[in-house]
Design goal:
4 domains; Alpha-Beta Plaits; Beta-Lactamase; alpha+beta; five-stranded mixed beta sheet; rod-shaped; five-stranded antiparallel beta sheet; single chain
Amino acid sequence: MKYSELLHKLAQKFILTAIQIRQDDDINAIQIGIGKQPHTLYIEQAATGPLKLLNYITQQTNEAVVRCPCAAQSEVSLSNQALIALFNYANELLAVERQQEVQFEHILQRSLGHDYQDVIDYAAQQLNNTLMIIDDNYRVLAYSHTFPFPDPLWQQNIDQGYSRIDFIRGIQKMLAQTTTSAQASYRFPCPASQYQRLVARLYFQHDLVGFIVMFDDQQPFSAAQRQLLPRVGQVLSNLLGHAAAFKDYQVSVKAQLLNDLLEGINVNAVKVNTQVIGYTVPRSMCLVVLSAKTELTQLCQKVRTAFPEALVVVYQERVVALLPGALTALKKITWAKLQQQLQCQMIISNCYNDFFATKAQYVIARHAEKLSLQLQDHAQVLFCRDYYFAIMLDRIKQRDVLTAFIDPGVQQLREYDLANQTELVATLAQYISCGGKQTMTAERLFIHRNTLLNRLHKIGYLTGLDLKDSQMWFQLECSLQMQNLLTSFSGGSKQKSLVH
């Protein structure tokens, strides 16, 4: 313990004056009498006058005068009883310090295993209290399993993954009213609970990344707990940081909000975080999933530049952006132009109104991405709505039953195409896609209109279908979708998807 630190603690119980610290020194022993051993605090007892605390360092001396903390301020010297109390109290302080160092050394040794859960459990045992780590967005990152949490409200925090809003406000008040320090711990009450909290700041690579929290279990916090908590916190923040348990601190807190939505974190927790960061949930929104071979962080920055109001995050090796706006506004976006600018594949959801449906929209987008590969669709801009039917079919476990729903005429055309190297199935698909408009169909197929008419006549002759009956189109389109999907599942035909 430093000489200055020891004097500071003694001053909480005794009156110290005339303090002179010429060179701070570590104090390892305390003696009554006069001596000049280094790292030793001497309590000099003179015949008259007050006591002196002396610490000799080379040719210099640290010193302070001790006066009696009694009601009669005329007393200038300590009695023998008070001298013994001073000596004993100073040694108690040193003993606590030594015990803390032993405990901290054990915690440091434990940290060599790089298992932060093991360290936080062991640290809780050493501190004889429950511990919790939250990041600077008030997410619960880790907590000790050594003891049960005494406060039922904090079990709710664990369940929802976020701190309660009253605790968050308490933390924010503490940050505003206290000096920045990695060595200090702060105690404050919670209006919704009878338990006190002891909190210390956590830093990783010189940035504030979160807090370590201890609960009093309705017992006063000891000096050892108050002093060890910040040191334990720094060990844990280093382990968590290198274990990637903390978020990427280059990403904004808004990005973390989107990440939590994609993870499906408790709805109440997300609502708390929107309050904390002051985010206004849009009435309508669209999710865009971007995949690229380039550096994702660079792509993420480009998307943020293109859409300043969007939530953007790197998630599961994709860049995901939640764009606020109504459907009419989003339609004005030229997706092909944006794709050329970003040089990536884009999967675009429908517009939706439920903020908490974001995870479901992401699942649909990834499913559409997977199906586009199976169906040999190499388009760089994919719209999820074009894959809704295929996604529903893909979720059917007994896929062999799908063949029963395929119109026999479609199956007959497919067999005819394979035998004669024709494109009647593709022609039928495009004809339905164009709503029976012959000129548009011919242009899409890059064939003459007479060629199209010949093909349609052939289709009608082989299948007996009346292609002028629009009521048949939905059934035929479903059959084409199912046949296309089953072919991709079986790995049979390598032809490109016929229907979007």
